[in-house]
Design brief:
There is one protein chain. This protein is mainly beta. It contains three helices and 50 strands. The protein is flat and about 180 Å long.
Length: 666
């Protein structure tokens, strides 16, 4: 015999083709090969079966693998798998940079997703940007997911990718004020002037000058008035950070002490020596404008000036001794240094004339008081003529100059006398210091949105009203928001060098406007009380259209009532009420027109009822007669009826019901 063995179909029940896992797009062909089994026996590709694939095994989509039996197997079966989009993330560049003052821009893009990048040779078309100038975090932008395209050369392969975009971030950090290309200019030393002296350095970033209170702030060591070293600390703010410092010195203020020339008669005791101290120059506002001279407010703290003559043991003969009068300052303030311009001393023959100036005379050293001051001089020879000048070289005059305004005023004096040689000039200085004046500005306030109030203040220390012109109290800012503004109120005035003026500023407060109260609900006015109708007089018929009809009836009823119950004023009342009685009235009874109306209504109703009853009876009788005519009852026969077609006694009169009228014509 013959044994014929036929191929087994690969799609039969005990044949298995394993499912295939999906794969991500990688730009190349991806032919997955399934495992084919006959029961537990794994078949061999190209011996037991062959594999064929759908057309596209590279790009995203579904791939169908067809298993075709061969050799001992036959038939076909298939299995599928998917090529899925390759996930990638395009991330904009992020970085942290230091502030430069110019715009910083980041444009880079990185592509990755868990280590996977674009397929080699593929490129993306997208843009990203993160930019900024000032310190802070600047969120960037990047092309939206849907707008990114991927290319393989000139062929777009975007569909093979699952694209996510993430913008980058630019973080700009403050630049340190102490870094290498930052500069803080050194500060020049300044001479003491009695006021605060806060020097402000120039701070630069390269060639760009920074702005105080925007890019940096300044703070100072404690004492910025008196002699010493001041440290200025520059602290970065805004786009700058860190600190650096610079110093300067407040140096002692130089003062010149000029010793006045003096003379004496031979054999006399030395006179009292004196001189003057150079004063600081001030402008019309009282501000010191130079770097030397005694500041007016320091006259009592400068030190004790002691004048003296040198070489007193040797310079005793008649003659003129140059530069022998000098001065020293005891307990000198640390804020000053001084130099001395010495004076000359002359010893005169006892037979010669000499001029003496009283250095302690009233007005020689004083604070401005508005009064004139002059030197007080005398000559040794009686009858001498004193000549005065404001310079050692003249011109000379017999008029003694007087001074009222603040300042250092030096006067020279010499004497002429008959038979005597003219004396050498001697000098003295009238020192008038500016008078201290304090202008205190009062604090003020207003409600937000209101006009400024009239500002006020107090001036203390003026010698005469009007010396500062009209003092106006004003606000130094124009803020209109709610808040407290310290020292915002100040004063303006006409400058006067005779005064050392201090303005004590006032605070200005703007308070929030009060919330207007909710207006109360206006009360509902009460309904007007109706004017009561006039109370009818009992027994009197009121006026109206019914009066002519009612009056005769009322009169008739009153007559009938009197006939029945008499004319007693209170017929229903008893004078004495017994315990078992049922009184109907305990006081005087007065007849009322209302009662008459009630009685009249009863009578009218009765009359109407009678009329209705009579009308119905008459109608019934006529209806009966009509029926009898139709039926031949007790009345004459119908043929003899005299009612058909009308007659002297019709059943229905004008106004009878329509149905009855129709029936009468049938």
């Amino acid at each position: 015999g013959t044994l014929t063995i036929e191929p087994k179909g690969v799609a039969t029940q005990d044949m298995t083709v394993d499912t295939l896992a999906n794969v991500a797009y990688n730009g190349s062909e991806q032919k997955q090969e399934p495992v084919v089994k006959n029961g537990n026996t794994t078949l061999t590709k190209d011996t037991d079966y062959t594999l064929s694939y759908s057309e596209d095994v590279t790009n995203v989509g579904t791939v169908t693998v067809t298993v075709t039996g061969t050799g001992n197997y036959s038939g076909t079966t298939s299995v599928t798998y998917r090529i899925t989009p390759r996930p990638i993330t395009l991330t904009g560049e992020s970085d942290t940079r230091t502030y430069t003052g110019s715009e910083i821009t980041l444009t880079g893009i990185s592509v990755s997703n868990d280590g996977e990048d674009l397929v080699e040779g593929h490129t993306y078309r997208a843009t990203a940007e993160a930019k900024g100038i000032n310190v802070g975090t600047h969120e960037g932008t990047i092309t939206a997911d849907k707008d990114v395209t991927i290319w393989a050369g000139e062929t777009e392969v975007t569909r093979n990718y699952a694209i996510t975009t993430t913008p980058g971030t630019l973080t700009i950090e403050p630049k340190g004020v102490a870094t290498q290309d930052m500069t803080v200019d050194t500060l020049a030393n300044v001479a003491y002037n009695g006021s605060e002296q806060k020097q402000e350095p120039v701070v630069k970033n390269g060639n760009t000058t920074l702005t105080k209170d925007t890019d940096y702030t300044l703070s100072y060591s404690e004492d910025v008035t008196n002699v010493g070293t001041v440290t200025v600390t520059v602290t970065g703010t805004g786009n700058y950070s860190g600190t650096t410092s610079v110093t300067y010195r407040i140096t002692p203020r130089p003062v010149v002490i000029t010793v006045n020339n003096k003379s004496k008669m031979f054999g006399d005791d030395d006179p009292e020596f004196d001189g003057s101290t150079s004063a600081a120059q001030v402008d019309a506002q009282g501000n010191v404008t130079n770097d030397e001279g005694l500041v007016a407010k320091d006259m009592d703290t400068f030190g004790n000036v002691v004048y003296s003559r040198i070489d007193t043991d040797t310079n005793v003969d008649v003659g003129m001794y140059e530069d022998t009068l000098t001065a020293v300052v005891e307990n000198l303030s640390d804020n000053y240094t001084y130099t001395v311009e010495p004076g000359d001393f002359t010893i005169i023959d006892s037979n010669a004339n000499v001029v003496t100036i009283d250095a302690d005379a009233n007005g020689m050293n004083k604070v401005y008081d508005g009064l004139p001051s002059q030197v007080t001089a005398s000559a040794a020879v009686e009858g001498s003529t004193l000549l005065y000048a404001t310079s050692a070289d003249g011109p000379w005059s017999e008029t003694n100059p007087s001074y009222t305004d603040a300042g250092q005023h030096t006067v020279y004096v010499k004497a002429q006398a008959l038979n005597y040689a003219e004396t050498d000039p001697v000098s003295a200085t009238i020192s008038i210091a500016p008078a201290p004046v304090t202008i205190t500005v009062n604090n003020a306030s207003k409600v937000e949105g209101a006009d400024d109030p009239v500002f006020t203040g107090l001036v203390d220390g003026l010698v005469a009203d009007g010396d500062l012109g009209v003092v106006n109290y004003v606000r130094s800012n124009d803020n209109e928001t709610v808040g407290i503004y310290p020292d915002a109120l100040t004063a303006t005035y006409l400058a006067n060098p005779n005064y050392d003026i201090t303005v004590v500023p006032g605070d200005f407060t703007i308070t929030a406007a009060p919330v207007p109260p909710t207006p109360p609900t206006p009360p509902v006015p009460p309904a007007p009380t109706p004017t009561p109708a006039p109370t009818p007089t009992p027994g009197v018929v009121p006026d109206g259209t019914l009066a002519p009809v009612i009056t005769p009836i009322v009169d008739a009823l009153e007559g009938a009532a009197e006939a029945v119950i008499g004319d007693d004023a209170t017929p229903l009342a008893q004078s004495d009420i017994e315990d078992a009685a049922t009184p109907l009235a305990a006081a005087e009874h007065v007849s009322c027109w209302v009662h008459f109306y009630i009685i009249l209504g009863i009578i009218a109703t009765a009359l109407f009822s009678v009329c209705v009853a009579i009308r119905r009876a008459l109608f019934s009788r006529r209806l009966k007669k009509y029926e009898d005519n139709l039926t031949g009852g007790d009345d004459p026969a119908p043929a003899a009826s005299s009612h058909v077609g009308g007659g002297a006694d019709p059943l229905f009169r004008k106004g009878a019901p329509a149905m009855a009228a129709a029936g009468s014509n049938e």
